[in-house]
Specification:
By secondary structure, this protein is mainly β. It has a single domain (3-160), classed as RNA polymerase II/Efflux pump adaptor protein, barrel-sandwich hybrid domain (OB fold (Dihydrolipoamide Acetyltransferase, E2P)). The chain contains 1 helix and 12 strands, in the order βαβββββββββββ. It has one helix at 20-32, and strands spanning 3-9, 37-42, 45-50, 71-75, 87-89, 94-97, 113-114, 119-125, 128-134, 138-143, 150-151, 156-160. It is globular and about 45 Å long.
Length: 161
């Protein structure tokens, strides 16, 4: 199972103080290079970009985003339909949240059927929340992470039947 993510953004300045245009330039530079990973530090803040293709996953194009509550920007993944028994991989490094807020029920549970586009979890990275959605219908066989756990790009989050 591959993921489709959405980010929420409110401003042209990120929580790190970097301008969105600056981040976009870094993303474009990484995409155009043979590098698999790029880390950039400025004013005590660090931005780490990783090409998912280098991890064996389908490439993802991202639009920089910063704030928790704001307009949504779609980040689409170019991927073929996933075969049965596949896994949903983390599209980026961050902290996974399995429910919308503490004390609320999780987005999905083991044994639950999901529809294409249904939210599976949220990954928080650089003070932005990236929605991870199912790219096809199926059933969650196993949740492989815990809420609050730090995950790496390409790490399996869910296993599907």
């Amino acid at each position: 199972m591959h993921a489709v993510t959405r980010s929420r953004s409110a401003s042209a300045i990120t929580a790190t103080g970097m301008k969105q245009e600056q981040i976009k330039t870094l993303i474009d530079a990484l995409a155009a290079s043979d590098l698999a990973e790029l880390e950039y530090s400025e004013n005590g803040s660090t931005l780490r970009l990783v090409k998912l293709a280098a991890l064996g996953a389908a490439p993802v194009a991202r639009t920089p985003a910063v704030a928790r509550k704001a307009a949504k920007r779609t980040v689409e993944e170019a991927a073929a339909p996933a075969p049965a028994g596949d896994e949903c991989l983390a599209p980026l490094h961050g902290v996974v949240h399995l429910q919308p807020a503490p004390g609320e029920p999780p987005f999905v549970q083991a044994g639950q059927a999901v529809e294409a586009g249904q939210m599976l979890c949220v990954i928080e990275a650089m003070k932005m929340f990236n929605e991870v959605r199912a790219d096809r219908a199926g059933a969650v066989r196993q949740v492989l992470v815990q809420s609050g756990q730090e995950v790496e790009a390409g790490q399996p989050l869910f296993r599907f039947e």
